[in-house]
Amino acid sequence: MKQSMILLHGLFGGLSNWKGVIQHFESRYDIHIPLLPIFDQHKEDNLSYLVHSLEKYIQQHQLEKPVIIGNSLGGHVAVLFTHRHPDKVSQLVLTGSSGLYENNSMGSYPKRGNYEYIRERVAYTFHDPAIATDALVEEVFKITRDRVKCLRIVQNAKSANRNYVAPLLPEITTPTLLIWGDDDRITPLEVAREFASLLPQAQLVILPACGHAPMMERPEEFNRILEEFLGK
Prior knowledge:
By secondary structure, this protein is an alpha/beta fold. The protein is built from ten helices and six strands; from the N terminus they run βαβαβαβααααβαβαα. The protein has one domain (3-102, 163-230): Rossmann fold, CATH 3.40.50.1820. β1 (3-8), α1 and β2 form a beta-alpha-beta unit. It is globular. The relative contact order is 0.17. It comes from Chitinophaga varians.
């Protein structure tokens, strides 16, 4: 029976962000990419709602001790879930995770209908702006044209700022891999080092010339590092 792997996207991310990971690991892992219900209407704190949705997903799919990999907001959700359910996660992988500090001006104030601004902010996510393809920019632009979705983005960004995880991290003994780009301008390298210092079983690997989404920008290196960690 294959080991389960859950991939969690960020605030403006999507399923396509994990293409390289899926291609590399799908023959050996039972891969799940739940779409985080960022745009749902509810009365809970937004991060708590996302964690509850992950709890339900794992229960519905009867996943036992999956590997959980989260980017940006998805990493934040993964941290909170792992802290609540340490017995339900075999290994934790964080890349560009929020929870300590996040410089996300687009999350705080997404300018609706301004295509060039959106292109600039998407490019800012990467070390190499060429990664911000027209298709990727269009995907984010569609979100920002929707008034309700914009409101949900702002609410989730504020919830992420409120849910400061530093006090929780020393209590998470799950083996954890941190893969960080040295040119991450959203969650800078200092954030990765703070995660590494607070998590009891953390390994930090820094990728040069890489931004906020290493699995997209440096997929081969990301997969190699992940492979080594999973094999331990």
